[in-house]
Design brief:
By secondary structure, this protein is of the alpha/beta class. Helix content is 29%, strand content 24%. α2 runs parallel beside α7, α2 packs across α10 and α3 crosses α10. The chain is globular, with a radius of gyration of 21 Å. The two termini are 42 Å apart.
Length: 417
Amino acid sequence: MRFSGWRVIREGLTGNRGWGPHWRDPEPKPAYDALIIGGGGHGLATAYYLAKKHGLTNIAVLEKGHIGSGNIGRNTTIVRANYFLPGNSAFYSHSLKLWEGLEAELNYNVMHSQRGIINLFHSDGQRDAAVRRGNAMINQGDDAVLLDRAQLRAMLPYLDYDNARFPIYGGLYHARGGTARHDAVAWGYARGADRLGVDLLQNCEITGITIKDGAVKGVETTRGPIRAPKVGMVVAGRSSQVAALAGIRLPIESHVLQAFVTEGLKPCIDHVITFGMGHFYISQSDKGGLVFGGDLDFYASYASRGNLPAAEHVMEAGMALMPMIGRAKLLRSWGGIMDMSPDGSPIIDRTAVEGLFLNCGWCYGGFKAVPASGDCFAHLMATGEPKAEAAAFRLDRFRDGVGILDEEGSGSQHNLH
């Protein structure tokens, strides 16, 4: 079943009776060539690229809930490639290029909107930092434009430019950045993987990882044991728990990140905007809701809900930046479980167990990384060697300190990234 404009028109004229399921609901096989633990964006993308690029179709994705029920459906949908350090910038540049061709690749509308991202700065020091970051982005091959106060006011007239504490000096404009529909990304990759023969096993929770003579042999699940010589762990905030089933202790803390959306409003915010003096970011969805978020809740938790002090903190930052949003009614909020690494950068690597692979530590950067994460993790699982764009994301950097990727300069404290 392929999507097209003509197909949509035909189905609309015939009562939409011709649409079929997007993917199968198969029973688990006793054995596969590879297993992916985690049916979120990263896991589904890994399965898709394993099948599409490496010809491994006898594989299964194991998801304890339903497809897309985790962080892939609990985020603020931002897509960007405005990283500074070499180990990160090449990876996110690669991811953005994949985003730009994703809808044609999957034959699925993920609602990728390159509306542009503007990172505001509020001091001379922040302007200097924006200049350095912009030059690094351009050197990587991505786009960056430094906007002064007058240029910014012409684009974003509704901001509070003369705030006594946080006057706005200008912004760094990344035109190719934007947003995408989070759950549609999961559905698109799930549909694409299924069409290539991948089994998507929902309501299939991992209860154990079978290891013999230093090599992985398969997993135990709530739907029975499944054998496989290769297993990839891609479970975001649950990474520490799943890795513990294999006797592995990860340098990961899990924290809650809240997000919020208002009632639907007429179009008023055309870009993604970030506040330089507070961790606050905002955009407007296609349905009209203002979608925004800020800092973590700053305590370790596996609960997909947040606390009121953190919500209040985010609202204060939003009101300082653009007081007009105080008139909007908050519609709902939700929380995602962030797998926070010590340096704020991810891990895509082999483990000490032969055949067991790890993909985690995405912190705030998980959604925008989905295509490149899947592509690079699939390459690692298929070949045993890291892809060039993800070569810096080694697990052992936290043991010896070599290659630490502290993108924000926050030190080795998980909840500051």
